[in-house]
Amino acid sequence: MRYFLLLLFICVTFNSTAIIAAEDDPFSAPTEQQQNQAVDGLAAPMYKPLMERYILDELRAVRQDQQKLREDVTKQVTHAQLDTADRAITYTTDTINNVFFIITATASILVLVGWNSLRDVKNKVEDIVNTRVSVITDEYEDRLKILEEKLRVRSEEILSNQERISVTNEVHSLWMRANLESDFANKIEIFDEILKRKPEDVEAIAYKADALLEINDTTQAIELCNQAIEIDSDYGYAYWQRACAYALIHEHADALADIKMALDYSPNLRNELLHESAFASLHDNESFNEILSATSV
To answer: Which UniProt keywords are listed (predicted)?
Structure first.
């Protein structure tokens, strides 16, 4: 816009200069140099006031827009506050009216059903309150009983877990003692202590049977192996110990049957076939050698 006004002003000035020159000398047209001089002489003094006027007009327009915007915002805020106050007053009025309506309706109902005195109202209210309190009390008593039962069960579980942890720690300590003990009689005593704490520990039973075999008590060792197999029929080491006991008393058929069962349940025992001294009497047995051949393959 500013450049357009400047261009317009230059054109008007140029035309005015041409007209003046034409009036002075109607028979001769102004030269280009004269025109440029006229423009340079007139543009400087008239251009600056025009720009100042344009800037002042723009500033004034901006100030007026700001004032108008401020007025609009003030009006909107005022209307919003008034609307909020109106809603609050309306809500309060409606609430009070509803309360009065409820009171009036309640009084009318009381009159209709025959409660004509405050004493009747008081007695009825007391009965309702007592009934409600009794119901709530019974409900909370039931909840407290359930909670007490859960707490009791939880306490028993905690005590049981603590007892099991204590037994586990004791058993672990006894196992460490048994592993360090070189005397087989002392080992048997340690395994007895373990079985006192965990009577159905098939591993302790099997290792006790192993210790009994070391002192040539094959009969009791076989009984312990049978006990371990009854508790856990998938425990391969129990079959292995019973096979050792049968091999020591030269019951080779039973020993071979138990070796096969032990290898089925615990394949890692295959590496111990040649190193087990109790199987020395089976080295010439054909079935035992077949098992060894299958193991080597």
So the answer is: Repeat, Signal, TPR repeat
Neighbours of 260 (CB within 10 A): 14
CA nearest neighbour of 217 among 194, 190, 192, 184: 184
- Distance, in Å, from the CA atom of 231 to the CA atom of 209, rounded to the nearest integer, reads 15
Taking a C-beta distance cutoff of 8 angstroms, is the pair 291, 259 a contact?
Answer: yes
List, as one string, the DSSP characters of 138-184: HHHHHHHHHHHHHHHHHHHHHHHHHHHHHHHHHHHHHHHHHHH---H
Q: Which residues contact 154 (CB under 8 A, 6 or more apart)?
A: none
pTM of the entire structure? 0.48
Residue 176 CA to residue 170 CA, distance in Å, equals 10
Which residues lie below 8 Å from residue 57, measured CB to CB, with a gap of 6+? none
